[in-house]
Amino acid sequence: MKKLIIIIALLVTSLGFGNNTLSVKQLRVLYIKAIENSNLADELYDKLQYENSNALIVGYKGAIEAIIAKHAWNPYNKIKYLNKSQVTLAKAIAAAPSDAELRFLRYTIQFYIPEYLGYSNDLDKDKKVILKYASSAVKEVREVIVQFFTENKLCTDKELKVMKG
Q1: In degrees rounded to 5, what are phi and psi of residue 20?
Q2: Whole-number Å distance between alpha carbons of 165 and 132
Q3: Which of 80, 87, 106, 142 has its CA 20 to 30 A from that of 69?
Q4: Distance (Å, rounded) from C-alpha 57 to C-alpha 151?
Q5: pTM summary value
Q6: How far is CA 145 from CA 66, 68, 79, 150, 159, in A?
Q7: Spatial separation of the C-alpha atoms in residues 21 and 83, rounded to whole Å
Q8: What separation in angstroms does the CA of 5 have from each of 36, 40, 136, 138?
Q9: Which run of H or of E encompasses 17?
């Protein structure tokens, strides 16, 4: 039953990207590439339409806003996009509070932002949700979550086992 729900979600979840359709799986790959490619981040931001989209698409829009903040050289634009990112991610998480992927997106963004900027308020809360629901995430997402928490030594062995399912 779980597999069927995931397959249906992947089939139904697609978004407009220019004249093409971009699947969530493709968006995940492009998101990772955009972390180091400001042009791709800008292109994704401009073309990703999330009005009336599901929470995951809204969450990726927020995560892309954070990437744009990373690439911006102007401190005003960095803060502007970082603020937008946090608002957009909060909106997505409010729509799907137990989605481990959304929580992981916000967690990783807040993890890399210097704590003194005051954007790290949700780390503990997000980690708890990630621990609880990571085992039900899509396999590729779950593997990335486990890898991140392992490499950064953010979980005990017991917690990692729970996440792996």
Answers
A1: -100, 170
A2: 10
A3: 142
A4: 27
A5: 0.83
A6: 18, 22, 26, 9, 12
A7: 28
A8: 33, 31, 11, 11
A9: strand 14-17
Helix (H, G, I), strand (E, B) or coil at 21: strand
Q: What is the pLDDT of residues 18-54, one digit of tens each?
A: 444 567 898 899 999 999 999 999 999 988 876 667 8
DSSP letter assigned to residue 118: S
Give the tokens for residue 38: 């400001």
Amino acid identity for residue 111 in this structure = F
Which residues have CB under 8 Å from 26's CB, separation 6+? none
Is the four-CA dihedral 118, 45, 103, 29 of positive or negative sign? negative
DSSP structure class, residue 28? H
Whole-number pLDDT of residue 50: 64
At residue 22, what are phi and psi to the nearest 5 degrees?
A: -110, 125
The fraction of the chain above a pLDDT of 90, given in percent, is: 73
